[in-house]
């Protein structure tokens, strides 16, 4: 009963495009597409420099993704500057998703703002953003606040439960249920 193509697009705002959910080539297509998007974001000045512990080589990363999951991150000294940079990154990512026919899902998104404090010879993650906001525009064109999580709160990212604080209790309980 449902057609794809022709002159009648029904309730579609634009002509349908992409490989659609469940297509076996979806991960490969998304890998190719997201690589181009990450390259564009890097050229726009987004990225975090890391030095490899073994090779001592410097590499730059904006984020990582697999299928429809994506993690973006920014780093810096000043939490307000990091937050402003992250908002620009979210806006850029959202506009690039729109070009592909996709959209961000604010209802499935969250964020952390982490500051590290030196305590008794060890770095500890602390929250730096409970009074701050990040927004994203969803597929309906409405801009919404994204859910802020405390650094101790675990969330499922790319199929793995983790938190910036390193707390593994949610991951362990999830694995025990499997």
Would you write up a description of this structure?
It is built from three helices and twelve strands. With 178 residues, the protein is of the alpha+beta class. The strands form six sheets. The chain has a two-stranded antiparallel sheet with strand order 1-2. A two-stranded antiparallel ribbon has the order 3-4. It has a two-stranded parallel sheet with strand order 5-10. Strand 3 (63-66) and strand 4 form a beta hairpin. The radius of gyration is 19 Å and the shape is globular.
What attributes characterize this protein structure?
alpha+beta, 12 strands, 178 residues, two-stranded antiparallel sheet, two-stranded antiparallel ribbon
What structural class should be given to the helix and strand makeup? alpha+beta
- The proportion of strand residues reads 15-25%
- Strand segment count: 12
> Spans with pLDDT under 50 lasting ≥5 residues?
none
Largest sheet: 2 strands, antiparallel
Strand order of the largest sheet: 1-2
What's the overall average pLDDT, rounded? Answer: 87
- Helical segment count: 3
Residues in helices, as a percent range: 25-40%
């Amino acid at each position: 009963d449902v057609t794809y193509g022709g002159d009648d697009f029904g309730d579609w705002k634009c002509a349908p495009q992409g490989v659609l959910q469940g297509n076996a080539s979806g991960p490969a297509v998304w890998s190719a597409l997201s690589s181009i998007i990450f390259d564009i974001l890097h050229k726009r000045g987004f990225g975090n420099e890391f030095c490899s512990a073994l090779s001592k080589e410097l590499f730059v990363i904006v984020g990582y993704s697999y299928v429809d999951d994506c993690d973006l991150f920014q780093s810096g000294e000043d939490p307000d500057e990091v937050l402003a940079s992250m908002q620009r990154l979210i806006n850029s990512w959202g506009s690039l998703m729109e070009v592909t026919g996709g959209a961000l899902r604010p209802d499935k998104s969250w964020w952390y703002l982490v500051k590290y404090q030196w305590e008794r010879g060890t770095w500890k993650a602390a929250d730096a953003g409970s009074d701050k906001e990040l927004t994203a525009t969803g597929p309906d064109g409405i801009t919404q606040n994204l859910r802020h999580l405390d650094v101790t709160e675990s969330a499922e990212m790319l199929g793995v439960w983790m938190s910036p604080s390193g707390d593994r209790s949610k991951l362990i309980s999830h694995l025990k249920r499997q």
